[in-house]
Amino acid sequence: MSWFRRRRKSFFDLLEDIFREFEEEFRELEEEFEKLASRVQSRGEEFGKGPYIYGVRITIGPDGVPKVEEFGNIRMARGRPQIREEMEPLVDVIERDDEVWIVADIPGANKDKIKVRATEDKVVIKAENGKKYYKEVELPAKVDPKSAKASYRNGVLEIKLKKIKPAEEGTEVKVE
């Protein structure tokens, strides 16, 4: 008989594990970034224009599975940090009964330089004004791209799209 019972992990234990893994990955990313910067500077080259931004948002989906979303202009590729010219903004997608809303943080963008392209399945956001932003957003439901309405205030882009009502499944056939 075992004196110890196997204890199930609580939500907070799982969250702590996720943060511990994130901290370790971030430490590795930071070390690689510093190595890259020192190699470039030792050759007498300029390291590039900042800012350098890397961030994550961790959410728990309806299925209980944690989802990690990266944003910024630093990405890991082949185990090494890659600095991109375009910044990937932090984006929220909100599904309502008959609409899908997209809220994107793109501070410093000029309203006239923001381009939004919508299809039934995704929205592409591009902005240029000193800083460059780029994000492809997969939508949770099919939408009517012609219904899209966008507004930009105080560095926040808000896009609203009407959902497409699903057609009935097939046509009933009378049996003779």
UniProtKB/TrEMBL annotation:
Residues 86-176 form the CS domain. The keyword Ligase does not apply. It comes from the Archaea. CDD domains: ACD_sHsps-like. Pfam families: HSP20. InterPro entries: A-crystallin/Hsp20_dom, CS_dom, HSP20-like_chaperone. Residues 12-39 form a coiled coil. Keywords: Coiled coil, Stress response. Residues 82-176 form the SHSP domain. Belongs to the small heat shock protein (HSP20) family. This is Small heat shock protein.
